[in-house]
Amino acid sequence: MSDSGPEIHEGESTRGTADHTRVSISIERSLAAAAMAAICFISFANVVVRYATNVSFAFTEEFSVFLLVLLTFIGGSLAFATNENIRIGFVPEHLSPRWKRACDVAALLASMLMFALVLRYSAELSWDEYRFEETSPGLGYPNWIYTIWLPILSVAIIARLMGRLNALLRGRL
């Protein structure tokens, strides 16, 4: 069984497939499943403890928010890898294949620029939080532990975008 989905023939849509990727999308799927399972476990344990003792775990909200942000970036990487990212399709659907491809290239380049900006500013944020020893309000953990994942996952998303752009320019999409 393959992660790449059904076989795509010439002229058909490539949405939902990852045939062009060298790195399996099972990485993102596994990480997303682990993050969702952790969120469910933490939330369920908090509800049980709060119901039984009328006291809430202090760490649940902090970890849940962190895991949701992590899940968002992992999901973004998976969406770009499988060509299921959010897009406006009305205009490109009414264009010739050549212009549709030009719109796809422009959209990928704009997405890369946006995530390059996220990378730059989140790296700066993480560095400042490390340098100034900022701590989280709930547990007092260093904030950079939470924010360091933003630039790391931005690099993963940019890599997926570059792979998609490479495949598009080589005619594999």
From TrEMBL:
Primary localization class, coarse: membrane
Regions crossing the membrane: 31-51, 63-81, 102-123, 143-163
GO biological process, one term: C4-dicarboxylate transport
Molecular function in Gene Ontology: transmembrane transporter activity
UniProt cross-references to InterPro entries, sorted A to Z: DctQ, TRAP_DctQ
Keyword Cell membrane attached: yes
GO CC terms: plasma membrane
Pfam families: DctQ (PF04290)
Topology of the protein relative to the lipid bilayer: Multi-pass membrane protein
Similarity annotation: Belongs to the TRAP transporter small permease family.
Role, per record: Part of the tripartite ATP-independent periplasmic (TRAP) transport system.
Subunit structure, as described in the record: The complex comprises the extracytoplasmic solute receptor protein and the two transmembrane proteins.
Stated name of the protein: TRAP transporter small permease protein
Organism: Pikeienuella piscinae
